[in-house]
Amino acid sequence: MAAVAIIMPVLNGERYLPDAIASVQRQTFTDWELLVVDDGSTDGSRDIAERAAAADSRIVVVPPSPEHKGAGAARNRGLAAATAEFIAFLDADDLYHEDKLAFEVAILERYPTAAMTYGPTFWWFEDAPEQSWTESLRGFAGRLHAPPDLLRRVILNQESQVPCTCAVLIRRAALDVVGGFWESVSLYEDQSIWVKIMNRYPVYVHDRVLCTYRQHPYSASAHAQAQGEYDRMAPHPARIDFLEWIESEAGIARSAPLQQSLRIAFASYPAHRRPLTVGDRLVMLKRETVARAKRLPGRLVRRLRLATRKA
């Protein structure tokens, strides 16, 4: 039995799949199994995966679903086939850096109470490299967070970057307790796991960039953004369903701070608002004041540049 199982769903990913598989094979930590889960591909993805499996016994191709059921269902099929102590995820168009598994396995071994660890991700725009950027987890990295701190502050309050799917490593024992991915959605299915883990277990956040999130026009998020369902920088319809799922999920803690964060998150969607308390409004006012203060230096710089040009 391998120490780490990497679950890789693929749907018509022949363009990027060889690179994703190769990034796993380059790991300095070699005790892994890669479960490539075909989600009903009609291109050459299955052939690519089977050739890789024939050449490397650590790679397993999970039989195809009779129909495309989405990334959440594909990952759940991978979980059902996995037997490793630790579980990682890698989409077929993303990449691991070579020390990803070694670094994060060491963290979970060092912090036995942590059910999950994650760090920052490099966002790679392959067609526009100048737009590429690296996440900052300043203020959150380098420590263990007790539950439900990250659920409230990262998922609901959006005070820091939400972990990318390729950026996490999770104990299988914790996944057995909280269950699998939310299957009835095409977005936020990964965050459904983060929510359940962060609600129940400590999570360690580190500051090492260990994966690359490829940005391209064929991705699920790019398609959703083109359809108006998703916008990483602004309120969007898919997040309403996600917030309602969190609100209704029976296993989510109902602490006063968490309930407040939910009400404030819903406040961005007028048709779905929950009644706000005076305390809620004070928190919202404080956040807006802080946000304005952060934007102020940039405005001053722009005004200075404009004044310089006029002079």
Fold and architecture overview:
- It contains 11 helices and 12 strands.
- With 311 residues, the chain is of the alpha/beta class.
- Helix 5 (149-156) runs antiparallel to helix 7 (189-200) and helix 9 runs antiparallel to helix 10 (256-266).
- The strands form 2 sheets. Strands 3-2-1-4-10-6-11-9 form an 8-stranded mixed beta sheet, with helices on both faces. It has a 4-stranded mixed beta sheet with strand order 5-12-7-8.
- It is globular, with a radius of gyration of 21 Å.
- The chain folds into 2 domains: 4-231, Spore Coat Polysaccharide Biosynthesis Protein SpsA, Chain A, CATH 3.90.550; 245-310, no CATH class.
Question: Could you provide a short overview of the structure?
Answer:
With 311 residues, this protein is of the alpha/beta class. The protein has helices at residues 17-25, 45-55, 71-81, 100-110, 149-156, 172-178, 189-200, 220-226, 237-248, 256-266, 278-310; strands at 4-10, 32-38, 59-62, 86-89, 95-96, 116-118, 122-125, 133-134, 143-145, 168-171, 203-205, 211-215. It folds into two domains: 4-231, Spore Coat Polysaccharide Biosynthesis Protein SpsA, Chain A, CATH 3.90.550.10; 245-310, no CATH class.
